[in-house]
What we know:
This protein has 20 helices and no strands. Helix content is about 75%, strand content about 0%. It has helices at about 5-30, 35-40, 40-65, 70-100, 105, 110-125, 150-165, 165-180, 180-200, 205-220, 225-230, 240-245, 245-260, 275-280, 285-300, 310-325, 335-340, 350-360, 365-375, 380-385. The protein has 2 domains: about 5-340, no CATH class; about 355-385, no CATH class. The chain is globular. It is mainly alpha-helical. Helix 3 crosses helix 13, helix 4 runs antiparallel to helix 6 and helix 7 runs antiparallel to helix 8 (about 165-180). It starts with a helix and ends with a helix.
Amino acid sequence: MKRDTSIYLDGVRLLAALIVVAGHTEWTFAPGLLPLIREGHLATLAVGIFFVLSGFVIGYAVDQKETDVRSYFLNRAARVYSVVIPVLVLTLLIEVCGRELAPDIYKTTPNVGNVLKDGLRLLVSLTFVNQAWQFNLTPVGNIPFWSLAYEVPYYVTFGLWFFGGTWWRLGAVAVMMAAGPYIALLFGLWLLGYGSYRLCNRIALTRVQGRALLLASLLCLGMAADLARFFPETTPFAGGIIGFLQFYVAGIPFAGTIVGFAFSDIPLARSGWAKPVRWAAGATFTIYLMHYPIGRLLSALVPHSWPLAGRWFGIFGGVVLLSLLVAEVSERRKDVWRRALSRFSIREPTRRRRELSQDLQTGRSVSDKIEACDIPRSSEARFSEAS
């Protein structure tokens, strides 16, 4: 992936996360300042962009870095659980504090039974089966968690299909059938992101063609909010499975922008804001999962006597800043989680170890390999060092 394209994707990822935060701020925490965010379903459209981004990134990962099943699932687990476990623990703590500080908003009695019930919901959420067949058992106080119960089955299904044989692929089909029709419907959007990555590697566009595709796709993306108005405001869930089609309204043109930008030769990597955008984008997963419980608590603590603009931006800014702090001990520490999880994973023999084992069994030496490949003797030393 070109560095310019990577910066573009980071910028979109950050913008989409901030739109989701703004959407819930306008919808729940401090409604009334920016009604266009709610009327245009911008937060829902941003989630559609996230699904496309996820598929694209996975396409890049399995093509360039995660070339075996162990590294693929290990990296997925580290990426997910490095954020999910801290977020779920903090969600429960924030919920308990909120019920004590603002029972009129949280509307649940703070007792041991309710805490145990909420803890059980969190444990179920760790398995990501809480949206299978519209089970809809989201962690209490963390509504955005629903999308992760869609995305993780996509990771599992894709990994089984991509790396496995017939039986593994049958397992992939079984996973998607167990997930249910709602999750299966949005899998097409996720696969669109994966297909966009494959397309970028299979076609060649001129700079003019790339920029034309980028411009046309951006124009279509700009119309997404107008098209989303045709769906009920309470969608996607209350609008049934048809309501989920609005995710495609933004996802399809966004996939076009990725392909167009990849050939547009726009030098984003050399811009002065590339580095801060990349840094901030490294916390978007945490911002997305952490913003709702934080925003709900802040909406209870920030006085309603404040001017609406001050209250709106105060909650929005507080959510983002506190989420960035949580990211320092979660998302930005996924390498620590990866090392910890690797101790419990089944190790696959590397290609070099398999080759050495085969050489020992057949009695072939490095010199035999050199002679068989007709490599000049002057290269033998370098070849031996590389092996």
